[in-house]
User: Which sequence fits this backbone?
């Protein structure tokens, strides 16, 4: 069942630029995969299933890239700050194709029933970025660095949404 859900959601992402993070995009993704439109019932969380899938997929791609850059965390990063900046930039670039629909995604994430999932995805990603940048601390600074990076990522995302200049990603 999970493989079918992932297949449908992957296909549905192609429809997000036109239909947003909606059940309609999921229906179109299901039909594109050869499933009947009623299969959207597999997604009781509606468009948030698509948002969560996108975040998970992008986060996994970024973590894979960070693993490759650091030999699975074994190679020390020469400039941790630059590494963090590049990781945030890479993650923001994944948003670019969906920028016009991103405010709807933000609205879905802000709903109370989805907050825990969305927060867990952000915090896990931030922890992974910090880990691969070389942060192996176990002190109180561990928390402040991760909260700081999460704040920077979300502020960058909000700025990106308002930036209308050419090549803003």
Assistant:
């Amino acid at each position: 069942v999970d493989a079918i859900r992932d297949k449908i959601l992957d296909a549905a992402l192609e429809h997000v630029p036109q239909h947003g993070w909606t059940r309609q995009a999921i229906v179109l993704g299901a039909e594109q995969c050869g499933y009947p439109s009623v299969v959207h019932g597999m997604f009781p969380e509606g468009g948030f299933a698509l948002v969560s899938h996108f975040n998970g997929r992008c986060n996994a791609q970024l973590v894979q890239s960070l693993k490759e850059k650091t030999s699975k965390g074994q190679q020390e990063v020469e400039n941790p700050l630059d590494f963090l900046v590049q990781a945030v930039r890479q993650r923001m670039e994944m948003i670019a194709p969906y920028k016009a629909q991103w405010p709807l995604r933000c609205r879905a994430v802000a709903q109370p029933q989805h907050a825990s999932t969305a927060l867990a995805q952000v915090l896990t990603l931030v922890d992974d970025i910090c880990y691969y940048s070389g942060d192996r601390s176990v002190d109180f600074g561990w928390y402040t660095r991760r909260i700081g990076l999460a704040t920077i990522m979300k502020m960058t995302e909000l700025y990106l949404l308002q930036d209308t200049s050419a090549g803003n990603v």
